[in-house]
Request: fold
Amino acid sequence: MPSNRQILLDNRPEGEAVAGNFKLVTTDTPALKEGEVLVRHHYLSLDPYMRGRMNESKSYAQPQPLGEVMIGGTVGEVVESKHPKFKTGDQVVGMGGWQEYSVVDGNAPGMLRKVDTTHVPLSYYLGAVGMPGVTAWYGLTQIIAPKEGETVVVSAASGAVGSAYAALAKARGCRVVGIAGGPEKCAYAVDELGFDACIDYRQHPDVKTMAKALKEACPNGIDGYFENVGGYILDAVLLRTNAFARVAVCGMIAGYDGAPLPLQNPALILVNRLKIEGFIVSEHMELCRRRCRNSARWSRRAS
Amino acid sequence: MPSNRQILLDNRPEGEAVAGNFKLVTTDTPALKEGEVLVRHHYLSLDPYMRGRMNESKSYAQPQPLGEVMIGGTVGEVVESKHPKFKTGDQVVGMGGWQEYSVVDGNAPGMLRKVDTTHVPLSYYLGAVGMPGVTAWYGLTQIIAPKEGETVVVSAASGAVGSAYAALAKARGCRVVGIAGGPEKCAYAVDELGFDACIDYRQHPDVKTMAKALKEACPNGIDGYFENVGGYILDAVLLRTNAFARVAVCGMIAGYDGAPLPLQNPALILVNRLKIEGFIVSEHMELCRRRCRNSARWSRRAS
Reply:
């Protein structure tokens, strides 16, 4: 049985999470029972939602228990199997957590899924064709539903979700504008990911300057916005929305470490007849699996 | 030609509108030109949107021009006509404004509409089967779309929109909870309008006490909310929303007289996967005319 390095949540962060909130332990992987599968992880997806799980209070999901392996999406390879559906060498995606190996009940629905890596590299199943990709797909196509020629914006543009969003929105004939932190990320968004423009929020640290930058980057106004951050960036975007714009709320990272950040002018929801909708992608995976198989080829460069 | 008392907007209010913002003038109604109709108003609808029009800044509509008759929905009777479609004695609904008579171009689309008062009293065309009624219908059926047994809430519950909302929601098998100002309005909402409960916001003047009152009045949480007021009431309602609740934003009266009122915790949009949608009923009149003819019989007691 190989030894397994695991990262546990040791205590709950106040404000930003730091190394001292976690504990590294080394254990032996247990002998498999009938129906179980041992997976060696090749990649772990580190995602913003994890910060919410570290809090004590219940959000839309239960908090991460203390003293247990941190939750996280993983891709890897089956190294031992006592389940007829899985065999050694299978490439799989699952929620293996922050550890090198995981033991998975092969019968538990949705816990472990074989993936085909002949055309798509394994790591992409944590990116463009994984949870971030379907997140972008769901928000863009099911909430924003842009028409050709419309302008759509996304915050955290250079991340896994933002990059898939750009590819999907460009394929639909939209002008795509990103918001990211720092000149490197912005250059990467435009040069590599296909954004038409990308605004550096560090250069525009308040509502007024951000709204000005958005006006320049979105001369025809904003028809759709994919929200990952919240705070003053959301305030600025709403000021530039066209009538009947749609806002998909996927994350509000800016408030994850502390007190809630208010929305300064909710009356704009009425004035501009906005539709604002929050969603959690794990509740829509079935729809995504049925509908978004074509995402991969639009998103090659986005992973 | 009868003489016509008219109320003009004389100057723009700062804060609450007061009598000094208006001017009463008496003019003679002009001689009719070909195609015109002279209407004597029997009722004027005094609505919250008017406060927004009194401001200089453009909202979703142009501001009310100074020195002109204040805008407003009216019902009345044709007293003279030079249009073949209208004859003396016809009962009509239109946007006659704050005056006793209006001269209307009978050819202008949607400006004047004959109504049938054999089964529905004339005044109801400014209430349950008029703009407030279709407003309630649109928000409830097209945005909130409640299922039987769900709990739906409305602010400004004892007003024209709130009363129609109660009737429509009860007809759909919902628990209907109102929010209104003062014990008289709340008693009226429960005893006369059919609300299952009504919360007096004057007794619950902050988020915490309002959220507590909502918890008691909505033991199964809130599935739909029709927003007329904004401010801390909206904050409190969002705290009590169930997952996938819908919020129809029709008005934000609380902020009409001054600075915008922030929404304290927009992260709830994500946590509770809310859908929040603003709408202006005049943009949906065609749909309403096609779809909501049955509202009248559900709303008899609501006008």
